[in-house]
Amino acid sequence: TSAAPFFAGLDADRLESYGYGYRLGFQYSFGRLTLGGAYLSESQLDFRNGDVTLDLSDPGFGGLGKVTYDAEMDGFAWPRQAGLGMSYRVSPRLRVAADVDWLDWKSALRTIELQLKNPDNASAPSDRTIAFPMNWEGQWVYAIGLEYEPVAGWLVRLGYNHGDSPVPDETLTPLFPAIVEDHITAGIGSYAGPWQVDLAVEVGLEARQRNGNSDPQSNPFGIGSTERHAQVVTHFLIRRTF
């Protein structure tokens, strides 16, 4: 038997999309306790006006080298979400908070399709579709946090959240790395009158996940491929209350 041609990957560039959705929420305070909830609708994101370069250098693909196509991507959506939360003011300077959120990845991400056409090499196929089976699962995220005001006008915050990976082992791919389950956050804020400035750092602790799928359509990296993912994100916000 002959070996299957080796596919060296793709490079996507300039894909863009616009989406819309709505958010509904409520908040009620009584005494030191505040309760709230929110619902966010699903936002469909169909990407257009991009290009994708495929490495088709393997003889199994005709030894065409790198070929660039016009590209569109369908099937991606930001999931609908629902959540409940509470905060409790322990003292004038200390507040604790907790919330739980549900993200409907199961409905949002099933199969993503990359539509390619107009290659810059006449010997390449004139159009092709690359499908990425996703079949993600719904996700529950649990979070807790503390906010402390050491001096008037300054806030210090710490937080932690956990959510099981929504990515099934059999469709794991580094193209969509969403396997981090635990996040630690720290931040500071300052307020004066109607203005507030906040700065925060979010650390996603390293997670590992293994794909044992033998289907090259779902797992082009081979049985037993392992993905590791960690991340650091910074947030900066300026807010004015009217």
Give the strand tally: 14
Straight-line distance between termini: 72 Å
- As a whole number of angstroms, the C-alpha radius of gyration is 23 Å
**Unreliably modeled segments:** none
Number of helices: 1
What structural class is derived from the secondary structure elements? mainly beta
- Main beta-sheet annotation: 9 strands, antiparallel
Strand order of the largest sheet: 2-3-6-7-10-11-12-13-14
Compressed to H and E, one letter per element, the order equals EEEEEEEHEEEEEEE
How much helicity do the residues have? under 10%
Strand content: over 45%
Query: Mean pLDDT, as a whole number?
Result: 93
Q: Any idea how many domains?
A: 2
Shape: elongated
- Multimeric organization: single chain
SSE diagram, text form:
Layout: E1 10-13, E2 23-30, E3 33-40, E4 43-56, E5 65-78, E6 81-91, E7 94-103, H1 105-108, E8 111-117, E9 127-133, E10 139-148, E11 154-163, E12 182-192, E13 195-211, E14 225-240
Antiparallel strand pairs: 1-4, 2-3, 3-6, 4-5, 5-8, 6-7, 7-10, 8-9, 10-11, 11-12, 12-13, 13-14
Structure explained in plain terms:
With 242 residues, this protein is mainly beta. It has one helix at 105-108; strands at 10-13, 23-30, 33-40, 43-56, 65-78, 81-91, 94-103, 111-117, 127-133, 139-148, 154-163, 182-192, 195-211, 225-240. The chain folds into two domains: 1-82 and 107-133, no CATH class; 149-242, no CATH class. The strands form two sheets. It has a nine-stranded antiparallel β-sheet, with no helix packed on it. Strand 6 and strand 7 (94-103) form a beta hairpin. The mean pLDDT is 93.
